[in-house]
Amino acid sequence: MSTADKHCCGLRLDPEVREDARRRLLSVRGHVEGILRMLENEQVYCVDVLKQIKAVDGALNKIGDLVLKSHLKSHVVTAHERGDEERIVEELMEILKYR
Length: 99
What we know:
About 75% of the residues lie in helices and about 0% in strands. The chain is an all-alpha fold. The chain has a single domain (about 10-95), classed as Metal-sensitive repressor, helix protomer (Methane Monooxygenase Hydroxylase, Chain G, domain 1), CATH 1.20.58.1000.
C-alpha cells in the first residue's frame, strides 16, 4: 500500500482529544528532559530513573489509546461502508504488533 493510500483518510481527532494528546505529549517531553538530566547526575538512584521512565511509558500508552479510540470511531466502524475492511484489518494487525 502506498503512503498516499495510508493517508487518504487523515487524522480525524476530535479537537478535545487532539488538545489532550498535545498536552500529554508536552508533559512527556518535560519528563524525558528530566530523565536526561537525571542520567547526568551520578547521585540519582536507579529506581528513581526507572519510575520516571515508567511514567513516560504510561503517558505514551494513554496517548496511544486516545488516538486508537479515535481511529476506531472514525475509520474502523465505517470500513464496511467504504469497502476497505481488509485494509483496515491489516492496519490494526500492524498496530497490535507494537502494543
